[in-house]
Predict the structure.
Amino acid sequence: MPSRKFKERDSSDFIHVDLLPEMKRPRQFNVNIVFIVLATVVLTWLIIYIPLSSRQETLDSVLERNNELTYERDSLRGIISENRIEEERVELAESIEEIAALQQDYDFYIDDFENAIVFIDSSGLLTTFRYNAVTNEVVIGVVYRINVDGYNPFRNLEFELLSIPYVEEVSRTPSSQVAPGSTRYFSRFTVEVSRLAE
Amino acid sequence: MLSKRASDIIMVGIIAVIAIVIVVVRFQVIGAFDERIEEAEERNAGIEEEIAGHTRILETYYRDEVLPGWSTLSRNVPAVYTEESLLTYVYGILEMEGINRRDEDKDLYVRVYENVTFPSGSAFHSPARGLVGHRVHIDFFSADVEMAHRVVESFHDLDHLFVLMDVEFSIPEEGETTRIRLNFATFYQNP
């Protein structure tokens, strides 16, 4: 519809009549829709399709591998079953083997530690011995005769024990006199040893 | 009628909403896929382990036919446990080493601690799984600490599995005796 609005400024003014009809501009909106559709397609392709297709490929290959492995496992189970190898029996046999491997002697610890004690000072004596195979720990009581002030064979023994290949750690209690006024001193050593040192 | 500016704003808004929806859908769908892939890979890893175990069993026991029979295994790890029979067995072994219950000088004491568990970090923990472990405590006096060593060797030489857990003694002076304490682990099949 033509616009009928006008303003009278003075008598010489023309009347302004817009004869062009008021028209909608639907083209602009259609372009937007097209753009939206296009953007949706591109975004979907970029954000969903590309990563999804690569994952689909990965999943396919993983599932294919799963089928192959399942077939291989079932075949092996079949062979095991045909040969009457019970898995329970195998497990028990292996447990027994592992347990038998834990049977360890302790005599060589005594020999090695006694040698170390006497090597540091010929007055040295091994007085107590305790070996714990569960914690891999040897606890020994050692007595030295000390006649000279400042001489500490226990410290030297600690280093000597550490030089034994299977010894991992050594700690000791402070030395103390065996009896008041005695020249004999006692200290307890805790020696961590590596498993199956024999 | 919408102005161009309003139309542009709506368009940008719609694109933003669509983008958000696409991103949300992306994370949902891809997340679900990733989860399926992860589950399938875990299953594959489990099957691969099983295959490795089966292959090892076949390589070890099929070709050489060295898998011991149930009777042999039951001699090593008996199926039936009673405290009485275990004590009788232990006393018998000690008697063979000259350590007699009736010998007052020896002051022999044996006790069984049932269902012993081992700390998870120790070498005993893993092999003992699936079996029932009991601790046998042996305590006696002797003038010779070598006796402890002989006892340990005797128990380790038996068909029935005994494993030394700990040993403790003092070195006796000339003419004296010392208390020797031994602990063995012994195992039985899980009933």
Residues 26-82 of chain A form the longest helix (57 residues). The radius of gyration of chain A is 47 Å.
